[in-house]
Amino acid sequence: MKRKPQTHRTVLAVTAMCVLFPAAAVIAAPPQVTPSPSQSNSASPSASSPAPANPTPSASISPDADFVQAAVQTEVGLYGLATLGQKKASDSKLKQLAKDLQKSTDEAYRFLDSYAKKHSIASQKKSELRAASQYSDLLTLSGKDFDRQFGKALYIDANIDVDNFSQQAEHGKDPALRAFAKKQVAELQRLAKATTQYKGA
User: Fold this and answer.
1) Residue 7 main-chain phi, psi, to 5 deg
2) Dihedral pair phi/psi, residue 149, rounded to 5°
3) Is the CB of residue 3 less than 8 Å from the CB of residue 47?
């Protein structure tokens, strides 16, 4: 029986988790697979396909490229938190919020990864430090304690990250990136509103 290809979402989750547990990368990361956008009619790269070469960074980094590099880490971090929230949240509304966030961050990551490859932007496919720390803390919690701190983490992240995306939406050079950033601003604002009740947790 042929082995099924590794899914994009699983690889992205592994990427997020390995930031927190570097030693696990050797065990968990599937060989010859890196996160990638949709290929043809399939949303997942083949597990037997060689990993694409890392893009060579340009001599001078543009503000657009800086944004892409930062946004990749933002989306990976939020994806990791969303994945954890789906598993551990006890509140049904919070669990659904985590599910929706996982979907939106997966789509955002696909766009950014494709854009980075197209424009030869070298990006680190790992979570930003804040989200990695939040993930580590949340691992020790359960029940209502988890719900409160998970909601608070999402509220904090949404309010911090929205500034970066707003700047790109207003001042970015590439229209495609501006449109993407504008869409993410709306997503982050919805996330902040949905988790307002947890801001004082």
Assistant:
1) -75, 155
2) -75, -30
3) yes
The per-residue pLDDT for range 137-195, each reduced to its tens digit, is 999 999 999 999 999 999 999 999 999 999 999 999 999 999 999 999 999 999 999 99
3-state secondary structure of 21: coil
- Count of structural domains, the chain: 1
132 lies in which domain range? 61-198
Measured between alpha carbons, how far is 125 from 36 in angstroms, rounded to an integer?
11
**CATH number of residue 89's parent domain:** 1.20.1260.10
Report the alpha-carbon distance of residue 176 to residue 119 in Å, rounded: 12
Q: How far apart are CA 7 and CA 15, in angstroms?
A: 13
* Burial of residue 1, with CB atoms counted within 10 A of its CB: 0-12 exposed, 13-18 middle, 19 or more buried: exposed
199 Ramachandran zone, left/alpha/beta (phi>0; psi -120 to 50): alpha
